[in-house]
Each structure stands twice: as structure tokens, then as C-alpha cells.
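Predict both folds.
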Amino acid sequence: MTISDYSNASHLHANSAIIQQRWPDLWKRLSTPPEWTHQIHLENTPQTTISVDGMRLSSGFNRRQEAHIQAQAIPEDHSEAWVYGVGIGDLIRVLITRETIRKLHVVIINAPLFMSLIQRLDFTDWLHEPRITLEDRTDHGIIP
């Protein structure tokens, strides 16, 4: 995946359409997030990534390898896994390639950041995945 278009209305439309269809109550909460005051930038690295206030959401050198390393924390034979924070989706994409994963919970930690990311990145591949459950941190009592 490349980040070819930094802000793309078609990404927002496609991503939001899936979320609205699959998780309508979540979409209602996400569509009115608190004000976002952080700086998001494309990083000029060998593999394009995004940074928020200078902190990269993924490796700028080998995103796929980093995602595979993170995925090693989840035993191969587990049928259910949790991902806290979307990042730019690389870890989610790696985990859904595992046939043993029957349910993958993706928990949105920062709603304003997530809303900003769905304007910039195409997440439709994993948002369509029936094994994924998209959830908000408030569903889990995580304090903001």
C-alpha cells in the first residue's frame, strides 16, 4: 500500500460507507468527534508513512516487516485477537491473512485521528473483512 493521495474524498466516502453500513451506532459517535488540534504530516521516508505531531504511525523503512514483527506477539493458533489503535492498517492487514483468526477486534483509540485517517487512506480492504469488529475505546471503558 502506498499513500498516494494525502487527502482524498473518495477514501472518506468509501471508508465511511462501509462503517455506516456495518457499524451504524459507531459511525454516529465517530461522525461528531471532538476537535482535532494535532499536526498530521506525510513523512518523506523510503516507504511513505504518516506522523502525528512528529510521531510516526508506522515504520518509514519497512512497514510490512514491522507489522509482521508486531503480529508475532499474537500466537499463530489464536482464533481471536485485539488491535488497539488502527495506525495505518498494516498490522490489521497482516493479521487477517491468518486463517486461524476467526475474529479480529480493532479498537479505535483516538476518534479524531481515525476520522482524519479515513480521509487519507483506503481502509476498505479490511473494513469489508467479515471477521473484523470495529469498536470504539468507549466501548471498553478506556479513559480518554
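Second protein follows, with its predicted C-alpha cells after the sequence.
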Amino acid sequence: MRPKTPELLWYYSRWFYQRGFRRLARSVKTVNWCLHKCLLPAEATVGSEITLEHYALGVVIHPQVKIGERCRFYQHVTIAAESPIGSDHFVSIGNDVTLGSHAIVVARNFHSLTIGDGAYIGAGAVVTRDVPAGEIWAGNPAKFIGTVSDRNDRMSRLNDENNKQSTV
């Protein structure tokens, strides 16, 4: 298990920001950038147990983002919003969401965007509209591929077939 250095630095940056230590929060954000080449804003709202794979290399997140619990982001993920900091428009990412490497999520000009709980966004996908809970989206532009329950069913069938072959 690797040390969760980028996540920990992001936590401290947000902690300082929430308590009014804006310069200290910015300093921690800068250290995170220097060490890991990721832009993780102190203004973002982030749930617990977030995992930034590959030490958050190249991850860029806009301050107008709300991230749920137990989310996993791979390298070079971009979450952007075409709205100013402090506006009513956010990118909201639900609980247990996975964003593949090089995925881009962009909320269009003065609009909010939501990715539902348990959604999977494929590597290299460009998401510009809402993704319902439990769905898998991929491509440029991102399109519906299937549901997480369908994926889990296929994985169960494959495991069952492999177990039968190994016992023969």
C-alpha cells in the first residue's frame, strides 16, 4: 500500500482553507503541485477515502467541485467548470465513482453537472452532461456503455466459468 501523500496534502490544504488560513492553504497546494504535478484546490468539497491513483499525476480539479465518498481518480483526470469561483454552479461527483485515466469532465458555461453514485467513466472519456447513478460511460464525447450491475453480472459469470475449468 502506497502512502497517500497527494490526498493527505489536499486534506491539509482544505483544512487550513476552512479555518481561514488562506495563505497556508495555498502554500500546501503549491507543495502538492511541486511534488506530484497536480492541481487540487482548497476550495473544493471532498468526501473521505478518496483515492488518487499514480500519486495524482496530472490531476486538475476546478474549485467549484463537490466530490463524494470513496471515489477513485486515475492519472491526468481533469474536472473543470466554466463558471466563476463562488457561483451556484458545481460539478458534483457522487459516492463510489471511478474516473479512468485522461478522463475529462466539463460543466458547460454556467451550468451544473452531476455524476451519480457508483458511476464509471472510462479512460479518455469527455463528459459534458449528467451521468446517472450506476452507469458506465466512455468515449469522446462520452456515451452510455452499460450499467455497473451488467458488468458485475458478466464478471461473476466469467469467474464461475474459470472456476469450473480449473476444477476439471
